[in-house]
Amino acid sequence: MAKSDETTRPEASPLDGFEPEEPRRSRTPKVLMWTGIGLVVLVGLYVAGQWAVADKVPRGTTVAGVEIGGKSAEDATAALEAGLAERLTSPIPVEAGGNAAEIDPESAGLGLDAAGTVDGLVGFGLSPAHLWHTLVGGDDVTPRTTVDDAALDAELTAAAEALRVEPVDGAVVFADGQVSATPAASGSDVDVEAAREVVVTGWLTADGPLALPVVTSEPTVTQEETDAALALGRSLVSAPVRVEVAGQQAELPISVLASSASFVPADGNLQLQLDKDLVADAVIDRTTDLEKKAADAKFVFVKGKPVLEGGDSGLGLDREGLAAAVLAAATTGGDRTARVELVPVDAQESKEKLEALGIKEVVAKFSTPLGVSSAARIHNLKLGAERVTGQLVLPGETWSLTETLSPITAEGGYQAAGIVNNGQLTEGVGGGLSQMATTTYNVGYLLGIEDVEHRPHSYYFSRYPEGREATIYVGSIDMRFKNDTPYGILLQAYVKDGQVTVRAWSTPHYRVESTTTPRSGVVSPTTKYSTAPGCIAQGAGSPGFTVTVTRKVYLGDELVKDEPRTWRYNPQNAVVCGKAPSDKKKD
C-alpha cells in the first residue's frame, strides 16, 4: 500500500488567531526599593528625634524638689544650683536616741554636684524607651553630692558625742530607814560609719531631721543585778540586829542600819557595805565602858630630864570585823545576832617608836636674862615655857612658835604687858613672848637646823645677842624652823633664876660656828614726841646700827651651810608723850 504524503499536525487551539503578548516584568524590586527608602526616612526621623532630645532633661523630672524637667542641661544645672542654694548652707538637723543636733554642711565638706546630677539625666540613646521617657516624663532624682571625707567624719564625730545617750546603771539607796532602787536603762551611740551614708544621701532631700543609726550600749549594773541588790537591802532593814560583845548586848535599830549602809558598784555588781565607824560608834553608845583606850607614849620631864611614859595597848572593837558580822547577821536569814570579840589596840605612839628618835642628851641650850620685867611679862613667859616644854619636832617637820603658844589671848591665859608696835613701846596681851622667840630661835640656830622664818626687832635690846634675836606677832610674824636632822628634837623651856632658858634634847648631828661683825653705820638716838593714845614715855636707848651674823654649819668635816644674815637696827629714840616744844610755841 502506498504511503500518504501529508504531514501529521497537532490539534488546533482556541487561542489560535490571537497575537501573542510580550512577556511581563516583575514589580518586586520596586516595592523593595520604596520600602527601603521609607525605612531610611523613618530611621532618620527617629535618630533625629533622639538627637533633638539628647540635651533635654526628661519632662517632669525633679531633684530634691526642684523642677528641671524639659530643660536643657545648662538650664537644668543653673536651676538646680539656684533651687538648692539655701539648703546648701543651712544646718542639717539630725536626731538619735531622742536627742537632736545639727551638722554644718560647709564644715562637713558637703556640696552639690549639680552638673554631675544633670549629666546623668541627659544624653543620646537609640532605645525607644529612652525617647518615650524623655518626651512623656521623668522621676524624682536623688542629687549627686561632693564630700570631704575627713571633714564629714569630724562633724559626725562631734554630732555623735552630742547625740550620745549614756546608759544608766541601776542603783539602790537607803533613806529614812527605807531602801529604793533606780532602774537600769540602756544607752545608745551613733554608728558613725552607717550615719555617714545616711547624711550623704539624704541631707538635700530629707523633709525633716535625719534619723542616724545607733548601736545600743548596755549599763554596767544591769536591772537583774539591781533587783538582786534591792532584795538584799530590804533584808538588811527588815528588823534590828543584836550585837553581843564582851558580855554586853547592843541592839542596832533599823535607822542605824540604814544610815550606815550603802551599795557600791564593783565589776558590774552592787556590793552592800556598812560604814564601820558608824556601826562601831552605835555599839559603843549602847554599851558601858566597852573599850579600853590605848595610852600613847610621850615624853615627860622628871627632875629636868625626859622620861617616856604610856605606850600601853588597849582593847577595842575590830571595826571592819564588826561591820562584816552585822551585815552577815542581817542578810543571811539567821537570828540577826552578831557575836564579836574585843581585840588588842596598839597605841599610835609606842615607846619603841619614840625611843628610835634618839632623844638622848641636851644638844643645844640658850638663856636670856629677864632684866627688869613686870609680873605680867614674867607670867606670860612662864605660860609660854609650859607650852614649849614637851614639843617634839620629828625629822622633816617644820615647827611654829606662834602655833605652839596660841591662842595668845586673855582667854588663852595671857596678860597685857609691854610690846613694841611700829617701833613704839605700848602694851598688848602676850607682851614679853618675843623673849621666848629669841631664846628658842637661838636654840635652833645652835642646832644648825633650817631657819624657815624669823625676824629681829626693829631696834636692839641689850639682853639679846646682836643680829641673833627674833620677835613674833600673830598673823604676820612667826618664828619657825625645820628639823632637817635624822633625829627627833624635844624642847624644854623654863623661867628660873632671872633667866628664860630653852634646851633641845636629841642626838648630836651638826656642828655650828658663828661670827658677828662689829657694828657699822651707827646712828645715835634722838627725842620723839607723841600724842598718840596710850603713849608710853621712854628714855633714849640703843643706837641704830647694822650688823652681820654668819652661821657655818658642818656635818662632820664638811661645810653644808654658810649663812650670812645682815640686819639694820633703828635707833631707840626717847619718847616724850605730848606736843613738841615747837608745836607748843605755835599754840
TrEMBL record:
Organism annotation: Sanguibacter hominis ATCC BAA-789
Record bears the keyword tRNA-binding: no
Keywords on record: Membrane, Transmembrane, Transmembrane helix
Sequence segments annotated as region (Disordered): 1-26
Domain YoaR-like putative peptidoglycan binding: 136-197, 255-337
Protein's recorded name: VanW family protein
A Pfam family matched in the record: VanW
Source organism superkingdom: Bacteria
UniProt keyword annotation of Transmembrane helix present: yes
Transmembrane segments: 31-53
InterPro entries: Glycopeptide_resist_protein, Vancomycin_resist_VanW, YoaR-like_PG-bd
